[in-house]
Amino acid sequence: MCLIAVAWNTRPDLPLALIANRDEAHTRPTAAAGVDPEAPDVFGGRDLQSGGSWLQVSSRRRLAAVTNVRAGVAPETAPLSRGWLVRDFVRGDTSAERFADALADDAAGYGRFNLLLWDGDALWFASNHPRFAVAEVAPGLHAMSNGAFDAPWPKSNAATRTLQDWLAASPGAPGALEPLFAGLHDVRPADDAQLPDTGVGLALERRLSPPFIEDAMYGTRSSTVVLASTDDILFAERRFAPSGVPAGETCVQLGR
Fold first, then answer.
1. Domain 3-255: what homologous superfamily?
2. What is the pTM of this model?
3. CB-based contacts of 222: which residues, under 8 Å, 6+ apart?
4. CB-CB contact of 39 with 62 (8 Å)
């Protein structure tokens, strides 16, 4: 997962609203969003290469989502997959705060990560780069991509605006999801003056700057919307071929 925008406790009827894009090599084996065969209360996509996930929810009102942190072009050599942080939290029953705090001893062993954890009551953030950090997320609109939490990257700002506009236009129960998916499918690159410097060079910063990345080798594999009302959780995933055209869609509602 490389782009996440979240609205946390901005509406009493919709405590958590999240939209996200997963950017990954198109050849990496992946299971489409579905019930985890080893945990029937867990729903989301699965990474079939390392065994974790980038975004999963539980009908027990738990959610975890992770992005990598971009820091140059050298390949990562960490022994632990950050996707297991998602898997372990959603399957467990530890509070978001305790799970995040408990990562302090082992965080350096995972690939560079930004992690969101929701336990039904609280939303927490944790990261291991450039150093271990953990914090409770304040109510409001937030975004994270491959840099610091709430860093004003162009793609993060665009995703936040998409979510904010949708929330304003849907004052009652959650409405149609198409405006959210349309915002996540924004392929316009950012102006050079707005680009972050993550050590990968200007050409690659440009290519990675839109919310949606179209590329034959590495690009946006899926877009996801999660809406947690006071009664249930809606999970919608739209998958894409390397050409950027839709290649499947899943939408479910998970009750308590």
1. Penicillin V Acylase; Chain A (3.60.60.10)
2. 0.96
3. 21, 22, 33, 45, 237, 238, 239, 240
4. no
